[in-house]
Amino acid sequence: MGVALRRLAVVFVAFVIGANQALAQGACPVRPAKPFPDLQPTKLTDAYWLGRVRSHEQDLARLDLSKVGLLMLGDSLIEAWAPPVQQLFYGHRGFLNLGVGGDNTQGMLWRIGRLRQTNLRPKLIVLLIGTNNIWPGRPADEVAVAIAEVLRQIRAWTPESRILLLGLLPRGSELADPTRQVQQRVNLLIAPCADGVSVFYADPGALLLDGNGVLPDRIVPDHLHPNWIGYGILSAAIEPQLRLLLDEAVR
Length: 251
Known about the structure:
This protein is of the alpha/beta class. It has nine helices and five strands; from the N terminus they run H-H-E-H-H-E-H-E-H-H-E-H-E-H.
């Protein structure tokens, strides 16, 4: 990584830490007495989702899971993390990507139940989930509660792992896009889930926007999934946090 890119990432992390401290006065959303669909572990019926889950389970059965130090969990935004960028930033870290296109909190909760049956216990889990709950029109409060439940189930599965929770990435071209409003509200609600001990938070998606809050086509062509440039920005943004959470020397 170039010196300028490192400096940019360090500045961003300092900003995120300051923001987290300001938000820490809130509380991580609590599961309500009456559950709703986003909280229910569900084996999704989409053919692509089923195929990806099956492929991941085959990989988990053949890999030496003790060598996995960094695990990325999420939907298509994790699955599509540009392979050259993945290799550059994570190839030396015992990296495993378990992103599944079309996943949501329900599917993730079901998948965590399956992961609990394996020996996978990574040092750090990077989690990005929830954008597919927003799209059907779920309210931000419910999406945030469901993401918090995913965090709790990960802690129950692998309590020794650290978790870096990523805020939902911006979607929609303009700041006024209705999904953007929900996304921002969700992020405000889930940021206090970071306790600074086992759960940490970052909002690298803010760096994908221009000064007017527009999501540029040249970085996020469909206004949801970044291209390799966008993933490079995201990776550079969270790199200093990854080094700290993996107990690596920062050079």
